[in-house]
Amino acid sequence: MWRQVLALIVKELLAVLRDGKSRMVLVGPPLIQLLVFGYAATFDLNNVPVAIYDKDHSQASRDLVARFVGAPAFRLVASLHSDQPIDDLIDSRQVAMVLVIDRRLTRDLLTGHPAPVQVIVDGRNSNTALLIEGYANTILSDFALSWGAAHGVPPPPAVLAMRARYNPTLSSRWFVVPGIVALLTQVVTLLVVGLSVARERETGTFDQLLVTPMRPIDILLGKGLPGVLIGVAEATVTILAAVWWFDVPLRGGLLALYLGLVLFVIAVTGIGLMLSSLATTQQQALLGAFLFMVPTIILSGFATPIANMPDWVQDLTLINPMRYFLVIVRGVFLEGASLPSLVSQYWPMAVIGVVSLAAAGWLFRKRVT
Hints:
This protein is of the alpha/beta class. The chain is 66% helix and 9% strand. The protein has 2 domains: 48-165, 3-Layer(aba) Sandwich (abc type-2 transporter like fold), CATH 3.40.1710.10; 172-368, no CATH class. It is built from 15 helices and 5 strands. The two termini are 49 Å apart.
């Protein structure tokens, strides 16, 4: 019995290793996933862009500023002279944190009163905001201990006053649930479209479809449009659940949200048709969809900020449609973003959609002929 089982095991291993496509599936996807997760999936914060508004201009405040600027987690991009630019800097994502030092800092330290130091963070990514708060608290505590030791007094009560824009309670649900709209839409659309042509080939009905009066472009549209409709419907259900079940505020307009949604679904549909045109079986289509989905989720900013990734990985995210739709869906939900402010996210998805659909059409005609 065991000899037969061993012989069957050897036979299966030889069959897999001798087939070039099988070897590629065994080696290629794991290496790609390893590189993507290793470089992109990091929760460490480095070079967080910050602005500093020092109202005190004293030795103590300069020492505190030097500690923030010298920390590897922060990178100074602006020194402010008024409160006015703060909102614009955070709205445009030029900074993730603004440090505001009260003009009474030195006086309060010398008199033993609580010395407030305000940190204003971008709360659209609650995980990042909480990490920033932890780093800022550590720096402020070290400053208080050093100041107290230098002046021969107990550590002064330096107080960190935290204020998060767009997500006052730093609820992770407000950050995650809008991202799930993009995630589920991509998964459903890609699977529906990616399996369409492969299913026809596997069941043997694809040849029957080719002898009909329909042109290849007609068949391609017939396979793609159901995916677009299903993707939009799936996203609508998720959006309703986000608002009515999870109590995530929808502050922007539906037109801005759905324009981005349609462009995103069209881009994913084009990619799904490309995969389906290349695959001859549903198993190959599923493997191709999996190989595409996991890296795009990691490289989209769904869980970890794109700014923390290496420069070459950030360049790679530019061809990922989910990157742009995440900005749109979170912007509309949390910021109340409008159509004009999201134009820079709309046109890349439109370009990706046109290119992927054109490539899918070319591949489809090539496979037909």
